[in-house]
C-alpha cells in the first residue's frame, strides 16, 4: 500500500534520476524538490540556454493527475461533463518527463512537451466520457485523470526534446 512517505520517495527518486540523466547528457540540472509550482528541474547547457522540466515518477504503469481542469475547461450539463477549451502551458517551453521506476533498475523514461501531454490527457479523457455518454460512472463529479505507460510509449527516451527546447 502506498503511503505519503513512499509516494514522496518515489517522487524524489524520479527527480534525481531525471537530473542524473540530464547531467549524463551534458546539461547542468538543478532540482527544486517540489518547491516550485510548475517544474522540478532547470536544465542548462554551456551557452546558458535553459529549459524547465517537470518530473512525474511511478512504480506502476500509470501516472495519476488530480484534476483535468489543469489542462482544459470542464462544464457540467446536469451530470454530463463537457470538455471545453484547452489551457495554455503555465510555463514557457515546459517539458514533461515521466520515469517508471523498476526494482531491477531497468527504469524507463518518457519525454514530451507539456502541450503534447495536455492533448493526450484531454483526448483520453474525452474518449472515456464518450464511452459513458459524458457521465463518469463511479462519481459523476470526479475530474481525476491519468495517463498510462502504453499511451506514453511513443515518447520513450525522447531526450532530444529537451535539447530542442533549450533557449
Gyration radius (Cα, Å) is 17 Å
Number of helices: 4
* SSE-based structural type: alpha+beta
**CATH fold type:** Trna Endonuclease, Chain: A, domain 1
Number of domains: 1
Name of the top-level CATH class:
Alpha Beta
Helix content: 25-40%
Largest sheet: 5 strands, mixed
**Uncertain segments of ≥5 residues (pLDDT<50)?**
none
Under the CATH scheme, the architecture is 3-Layer(aba) Sandwich
Total count of strands? 9
What shape does the CA trace take?
globular
Distance between the termini: 42 Å
> Which strand-content bin applies to the residues?
25-35%
How does this model look, in words?
This protein has helices at residues 4-24, 114-131, 149-152, 160-164; strands at 28-31, 41-44, 50-58, 62-65, 72-77, 80-86, 95-100, 108-113, 145-148. It is an alpha+beta fold and 167 residues long. It has a single domain (4-164), classed as Trna Endonuclease, Chain: A, domain 1 (3-Layer(aba) Sandwich), CATH 3.40.1350.10. Strands 1-2-3-7-8 form a five-stranded mixed β-sheet. A hairpin with a 5-residue loop joins strand 2 and strand 3 (50-58). The radius of gyration is 17 Å and the shape is globular. InterPro entries: tRNA_endonuc-like_dom_sf (IPR011856). This is Aspartate ammonia-lyase.
What descriptive keywords fit this protein?
167 residues; alpha+beta; Trna Endonuclease, Chain: A, domain 1; 5-stranded mixed β-sheet; two-stranded antiparallel ribbon; 4 helices; 29% helix; 30% strand
